Each structure stands twice: as C-alpha cells, then as structure tokens.
Amino acid sequence: MAERPLPSGYEGLYAAGLDLIVLDSRLTDVQRRCVLAHEISHARHHDAGCRCDRWTEQRADMEAAAMLISPMEFAYAEAVYEGNTVGMARELNVLPWVVQAYRERLHDDPTLAML
Length: 115
Known about the structure:
- By secondary structure, the protein is mainly α.
- It has five helices and three strands.
- The protein is globular, with a radius of gyration of 15 Å.
C-alpha cells in the first residue's frame, strides 16, 4: 500500500499489475478506512482498471461494508438514528456510502439482519 496525492475524483485505486493499493494522502481517517476496505475488495478479486463496471464497484462497496460494520452495531445505529444515514455513518465511523452498501447487503441477504 502507498499513499500519495491522487488526481481529482480519485480517493484510491488498486493497481492489479503491481498488486498495489494507492490511497490519496489527503484523506481523513474515516475516508482512509472506508476507501482502503473498498480497495482491499478489488485486490482480493484482482480487479483490473480504475472505475470498473457498476457491478464490480457495488461488490467492492458491499464487501467494504461487511469489513467495517458488524450486524449488532448496524442494528443499534439504525434504532438510535431511526435510519438516518448520516447519523448512522457518524456512529459507525464510516462514510454514508458504506451505510448504504450495508443496507444493500441486507436487502440481498435478509439473514444478516439482527432478530
């Protein structure tokens, strides 16, 4: 993994040919956590190229959400913040897109929900 300033519009990338994750060095701690988890997913699957197809990006988001959020913590945050994405993201120490990706995981696999 390396960190350096990246061009506008890029927070991180996985360079498959080098097996290297590069993060923008200007990211906040929360951004760094979330973007790194997303890029780890790309690395696990050896995804080639930046801005892969929509399915690949969605898979990386959902896998990042699984890495960063536990079902119990999600259930707690959802109850406390009544589903407010921004409040939940702050509580869970993630970005709002991670909360949304976790919701998509729950939609795809309801057995992940806390009973």
